């Protein structure tokens, strides 16, 4: 009898492997191949170093004496008893708060101004963004010369009859100087992000608000800020994390001085590990820094539901 042409084809024999290579498995394999470089990079350059830092924090490593011994929680007990840690955390908090507030406020102001359709805005956008691509060390060295007692800043002040202080040798002046140098270096990045977000706000909302009689501040508070709030969240997370990891500006401008007024946590970590060769205690400070950055990032992410538009 002839075989019915409509009958289903016979299933491949079990064990032949013909039914294993399906389209779904192929797509999964391709997806894993695409994420593999990033995954391997994260394992090698993020998670492995983080695990080693925690491991080293439980040991005392003296490179000069070539000793490496397990000390358990001694480094963490030293951290709690260190009289310099409260001063370092205070300086870190002052620097971070000043940098975040000044940076985000100035970036928002510049973005709002440059979002206006005026002549020359392209030139000013380039001018404000150009410091972002300048070498950080070169930028800091130049500002170090400008902020000296006989530098360019005091010469400019003297031309209008104002006697400028020795900016880098007074506690308050040194902190303000470091904050300003860092703000002017990176404000262009946040400005560009805010500017891109502002250009995505529908113009119809502003027109409707004007018809209803809303003023400029009301339009900004009730339309602009809610609509760009996801970008505000992004820039705040980036800026807060970056403010807690600043090092080059402190090392070049003030070396943590005068006294410990500008000794932030990263610079204190560097001193303990690479100047005093307390690598175990330096690793412990690294763990503290990681916990602080992680806690602040998680806090900002959890609070987004209260002020980020369309978050539930």
**Largest β-sheet summary:** 2 strands, antiparallel
Category from helices, strands and their pairing: mainly alpha
C-alpha-based Rg, rounded? 28 Å
pLDDT below 50 for ≥5 consecutive residues: which ranges? none
Number of DSSP-assigned strands: 2
Strand order, main sheet: write it out: 1-2
- Give the distance, in angstroms, between the N- and C-terminal Cα atoms: 67 Å
Could you tell me the mean pLDDT?
88
Outline type: globular
DSSP strand content: under 5%
Note the run of SSEs as H and E. HEEHHHHHHHHHHH
Share of helix, binned: 55-70%
Helix segment tally = 12
What does this structure look like?
With 312 residues, the protein is mostly helical. The protein contains twelve helices and two strands; from the N terminus they run αββααααααααααα. Strands 1-2 form a two-stranded antiparallel sheet. A hairpin with a 4-residue loop joins strand 1 and strand 2 (67-70). Helix 3 runs antiparallel to helix 9 (216-243). The protein is globular, with a radius of gyration of 28 Å. The model has no long low-confidence stretch (mean pLDDT 88).
Helix and strand topology:
Elements: H1 23-57, E1 59-62, E2 67-70, H2 74-81, H3 84-114, H4 121-129, H5 136-146, H6 152-159, H7 171-198, H8 203-211, H9 216-243, H10 248-253, H11 265-275, H12 279-307
Antiparallel strand pairs: 1-2
Helix pairs in contact: 1-12, 2-12, 3-7, 3-9, 7-9, 9-12, 11-12
Keywords for this entry:
312 residues, 3% strand, 2 strands, two-stranded antiparallel ribbon, mainly alpha, single chain
């Amino acid at each position: 009898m002839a075989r019915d042409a409509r009958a289903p084809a016979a299933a491949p024999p079990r064990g032949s492997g013909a039914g294993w290579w399906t389209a779904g498995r192929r797509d999964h394999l391709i997806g894993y191949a695409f994420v593999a470089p990033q995954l391997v990079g994260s394992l090698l350059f993020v998670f492995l170093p983080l695990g080693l830092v925690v491991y080293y924090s439980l040991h005392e490593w003296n490179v000069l004496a070539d000793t490496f011994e397990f000390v358990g929680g001694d480094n963490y007990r030293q951290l709690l008893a260190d009289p310099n840690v409260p001063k370092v955390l205070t300086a870190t908090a002052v620097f971070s708060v000043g940098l975040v507030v000044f940076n985000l406020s100035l970036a928002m102001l510049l973005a709002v101004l440059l979002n206006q359709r005026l002549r020359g805005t392209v030139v000013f956008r380039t001018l404000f963004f150009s410091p972002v691509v300048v070498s950080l060390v070169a930028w800091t060295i130049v500002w170090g010369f400008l902020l000296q007692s006989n530098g360019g800043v005091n010469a400019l002040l003297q031309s209008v009859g104002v006697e400028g202080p020795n900016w880098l040798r007074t506690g308050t002046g040194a902190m303000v100087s470091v904050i300003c140098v860092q703000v002017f270096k990176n404000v262009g990045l946040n400005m560009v992000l805010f500017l891109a977000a502002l250009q995505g706000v529908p113009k119809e909302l502003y027109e409707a608000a004007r018809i209803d009689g809303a003023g400029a501040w009301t339009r900004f508070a009730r339309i602009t800020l809610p609509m760009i709030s996801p970008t505000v969240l992004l820039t705040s997370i980036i800026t807060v994390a970056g403010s807690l990891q600043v090092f080059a500006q402190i090392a070049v401008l003030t070396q943590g001085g005068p006294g410990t007024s500008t000794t932030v946590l990263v610079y204190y970590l560097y001193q303990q590990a690479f100047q005093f060769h307390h690598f175990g205690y330096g690793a412990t400070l690294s763990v503290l820094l990681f916990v602080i950055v992680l806690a602040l990032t998680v806090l900002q992410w959890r609070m987004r539901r209260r002020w980020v538009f369309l978050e539930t």
